[in-house]
Every structure is written in structure tokens, then in C-alpha cells.
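TL;DR need C-alpha cells for one chain.
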Amino acid sequence: MISQFFVLSQRGDNIVFRDYRGEVAKGSAEIFFRKVKFWKDDGEGEAPPVFNVDGVNYFHVKEAGLFFVATTRVNVSPSLVLELLRRIARVIKDYLGVLSEESLRKNFVLVYELLDQVIDFGFVQTTSTEVLKSYVFNEPIAVAADHLQPLGPAAIFMAKRMPVTTITKSVVANERGGRKREEIFVDIIENLSVTFSSSGYILTSEIDGTIQLKSYLTGNPDIRLALNEEVSIGRDGGSTYDYGSSFGSGPVILDDCNFHESVRLDNFDVDRTLTLGSTDGEFPVMNYRITKEFKPPFRINALVEESGRLKAEVTIKVHAEFPSSIIADKIMVQLPVPPYTTKVSFELEPGAVGNTTDFKEAKKRIEWGLKKIVGGSEHTLHAKLTFAQELRGNITKEAGPVSMTFTIPMYNASRLQVKYLHITKKSKSYNPYRWVRYVTQSNSYVARL
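>> reply
TL;DR here they are.
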């Protein structure tokens, strides 16, 4: 049970506000934003998703740069409220096509109609896009494509294969002429957490993956989604990666997984097939986790050596372990340096294109940006550090670790694949568009010195 729900912009502007029970003062939105904004100034780091101020419990999640917030004075399950906020954000995105401040402002009538159906007097009624279609009748107002925010990981390669607006349109919107384009999107998104030792060995490795589905199909046809037959669930003490096998082959061992409530698992144990009804909107079909060793997409080697009384040299090498047909982009390598570093000079390898280097003096951090990395290639950065005082001890104790962020389209480290996507035919001519995409990105990718 919640008392209020509101959405704030990054500036603290109140975009949507609904008071369901009148138990919390109207100024709660301002109190919340002031508390979150100045939380760091209090020396406590980032604001937690749940906190209490003057007897009012505040719950919030951040989606697309917007704060989705709920308040209550009663003791409710934090997990329940946080999941409710995420589902509200997803429902709004399903209806508007894109989640942004501009789309919310242009469609505030539709958003308020959705909220009145999702929550009644503080109690949740439904968060199903399919169910809401029977009760919500306002049409969304499309936001101009040039005003759209980045679409997320899939956007970096989607534009080359299909119109950008296909994934950002509303699930209730029709094409010109009143017809609805029949299509379905399946995204396999994996977030990697890897820690390398100073000698390059893997200390920890984990994959958090999800199979995300967004459907624009009419008539609710059944969908059959088949995964690798070599998929197994449960730990057996072995490595998930056979380094001698070819790329994209071999068994896939999941530590654990969970499925959306609409998924039927009648044949999953037999042929690894998931069956589900075509529910409008976007939702995770399956979440999975892998903690066994796998082949990381990048190897990072970093070396820091003293080169004088007030100087040191840094060498960072990044080697791409994936095939040359795949290109990674949005790469950023960071290395914290000793706090008494005053100057850094950089030297890139000959012929380097699209690289950026910077010394963030306030944060005492080196940043190396690469526009793209082709599979199988190696890139090197040399940096010379100048200090304001003599070293206090071993420099590796005061610098590092190296961290890396990246996105790799059409690649997945676990080798989990969608073998086929079958949709029940309503007629012989029925043949909807199917889009299956893969993307791997970093969650915590660290190399110790």
C-alpha cells in the first residue's frame, strides 16, 4: 500500500504526481529530491533506494534518467514497492514507446489514465499491458525521432538493420492506414563481472543475463522459443568454456535461472523450448546467472613502474579475444593514480584512430577512450606520471585497479543462443517479422596491478 506516486526529472521538476491516500504532505517530492541530491554531501555516498525522513518511507528507482518514487507511512515490503515502480516504468514505456521527460509531458493525460488503472487508493490492481488495453483508451502522442534519448545497448547496432522507430513505438499504436506491423523482438543481454590478477589470471567471473521480449503481434499467437540443446542447469565443478572448441559451440551451464510467469515449461527439460502466449509489451522471458569460468572478451595487462624520484611510467594493454567479424564500441579504460600526481603525458601506438586520453586531476584518474575495437586486435597506452612528492612506498599500493567499460553487439560470452523463434500461424500468409539480437556489456571489469 502506497500513499503517493510521482516522477521527477534530473533537475527535480515534478512531471507526474498522484496522491492516493492523503497521508503524506504535498511537499514530499521536494523533500525527496533535496535528500537525494545532497546525500553525498552528508558523507554517506549514493542515496539508497529506500530511506525514511520524518516518518515517511521513500522508495525510488531511476529509469531513463527519471526518478520514479513512491511514499508511505506504513511498513510495506521494500522489494514489492521497488518492483512495482519498475513495472510502472515498463508499462509507461510500452504505451509511449520511449521513456523520456518529453514523452511524459506530451502524454500526461494517458499517463494519469494508466496510473488510475494500475493503482487504486494505494493498492496495486494490475501491471499487465495486455490487461490494461481493455481499460485505457487514450492514444499516445509520438515524440519526434530526433528528440529521442539513446535506446540502450541494442540501439548501437539496431539502426543498421531496421528503422530506429520500430523498437520505440507504442504497443498500442498503429501504422499509417490503421494497420499494425506484426513483429517481435528478442534481445539476449549479458552483463559481465570479471576480476583479473596482476599476472592476468581470472580471479572471479560472472555473467548476469536476460532474454528480453517485446511483442507487437495481434491475436495473441503462441510463441515457441528454442535455446541450445546443450543448456544445463546446476553446478558440476567444471569450466563452462572449452578453450579448444570453436566460437559459439559447446555446452552452456547455468548456475540458476528464473522465468516470467507467462512462460510454459512443458518441453523445456526435453528440448530446451520455452512456450509463451504473445503478451503485448516488454518483459524478461528468462533471467540467468553463470559463475563458472568463461572466455572473457578482453584481456587487460597493466604495468606501473617507477622511472625516477618523482616519476613513474604506466603501460596498459587491451587485447580483444573475440572473432575479427565482431566490433566492440563505447570502450573506456580508467586507472586511478596516486593522489599526489600533478601531471600525466600520454603516448598512443602509431596509427591509433578514434582514441581519447585525459587526466582527471580532481579525481586523480587516467581515462582512455576507444571508439571501437575489432576482434583479435591489441591496443596499448603509455603514460608518464609526475608527482609532487616522493613515493611513500610501493606505487602499486596507491594506484589502480584498472577498470573497463564496453559494449559488444552481436556477441554473448555464455554462448546461449536462440535456435529458432516459431509463431503459431493464424493463416497461410501470416509471417511476422522476427528480430533476435545479442549484446554483451561490462558490469564490473577490473584488472589488479
